[in-house]
TrEMBL record:
InterPro entries: Ald_DH/histidinol_DH, Ald_DH_C, Ald_DH_CS_CYS, Ald_DH_N, Aldehyde_DH_dom, ALDH_GabD1-like, GABD/Sad-like. Residues 3-455 form the Aldehyde dehydrogenase domain. This is NADP-dependent succinic semialdehyde dehydrogenase. The keyword Oxidoreductase applies. It comes from the Bacteria. It holds the Pfam family Aldedh. Keywords: NADP, Oxidoreductase. Belongs to the aldehyde dehydrogenase family. The keyword Repeat does not apply. GO terms for molecular function: aldehyde dehydrogenase [NAD(P)+] activity; succinate-semialdehyde dehydrogenase (NAD+) activity.
Amino acid sequence: MAIATVNPTTGLVEQEFDPIDETEIERRIAAAADGFVSLSKTSFEERAGWMRAAADLLEADVDELARLITVEMGRPIGQSRAEVLKSAKGMRFYADHAEEFLAPEWLPDPSAVNASAAGTRYEPIGVVLAVMPWNYPLWQALRFAAPALMAGNAGLLKHASNVPQAALYLDTLFERGGFPAGSFASLLIPASGVERVLRDKRIAAATLTGSEPAGRSLAAIAGSEVKHVVLELGGSDPFIVMPTADVPAAVSVAVKARVQNSGQSCIAAKRFIVHSDVYDEFLGLFAARMGELSVGDPLDESTDVGPIATESGRDELAGLVDDARAKGADIVVGGATPDRAGWFYPPTVIADVTPEMRLFAEEAFGPVATVSRVADAAEAVKLANSTTFGLSSAVWTNDPAEEDLFVRSLAAGGVFVNGMTASFPELPFGGVKDSGVGRELSAAGIREFCNLKTVWKG
């Protein structure tokens, strides 16, 4: 893929960029290594001041950045604006809490280990390489960068090739906020250039948010170099609705959960699993609401669903729907690629999905929802756990016993009860199975790229 801004609303190339050459790659890695040495010697108070200043810069540019995001990857403008503000909030969260999260922990009774004092401390590990996706071009990158820098690490960002202007904005943000030179930089390189950077001895660890194949590839390289990784990969999250649920409320949230970011979110609800007692009511209301959504120019404040970010992504989504249709699924609403400029796909609801259809197990990265009928909670759990993914899940029930069953039994990194999956700086985020390893956000996220050092004194 060329490194270029290709407007998904029009399909036209807005701007192209040359990848940096080997000399510049070397310069940036060397600068990051030096930046780590400088940054690791600073105090939490100094880093917090710089992080808050960078967050202020981000907020000051909110309108410009929101438009940039929308032009580069097609998100409706109001959601783009919200991403900028959420990113600034996350940066301030780590400025406020990094010292607390990384405080030394001492055993209350060191005599148990024959010591006068014993415990642990968290220390930065070095330069961390981040390989980030286009779907949340600021939030995904900054939820890595904020904790990494606040811990005293340096960061290098290899961003998705279709959001180069977002990458270039982030390239200078932290130095503009006051961080030492080299603390953070973007690498405009193709995906094929990641291995060379990751194998460099000055790179201590890596994190990737993206597809399962990309995660497997990066993990294999890191494993051969004995380097730690955090991976947040795909998801096909279940959204379970039981008879005790407030069905109209569940439908309202279900629509938002499916079409957030025009359906292009790993944690978007994708498989709606509904008890037979409320199935017809849910499906009727859900399909009606999905069919009413406005699809169009994402720069228009009234647009609900913008284009798919890439032509290949739109074609892949259409292929999943066409496969289900050919194998007997019921296309309740949507399901046809519109004849218009840009890479649009309508909100689509599909019922009667069976295991031989690709949609049964594969992730639909766009506004396409499947709705399945189950007889009881046990069948709901079985169907929810039937894919290789395990990122997050949502459950709608007002039965305490059912709630307990779902929380205990769903194979996922999160369970959201009577709501939709979301990411918060205060809570850990990540998945199990093929959805990844490790955690981002909260105290867990900042500790991922630290050396947990044991200290013992006789």
